[in-house]
Amino acid sequence: MTHTIEISDDLKDRIDDHCEEDETYEEFLEELVSIYETEGAFLQEGYSE
Is the pLDDT of residue 43 over 70? Predict the structure, then answer.
């Protein structure tokens, strides 16, 4: 079953900036969720705990 979510044009552009070549939105989101589940939180670039 597929689901549709609506995002703003600005957020779409931001996601596009982070997607690797030929990476789908689904693949990008799967990776993002995996990182969140592994790390427990997203770290800002350039910072560490």
Answer: no
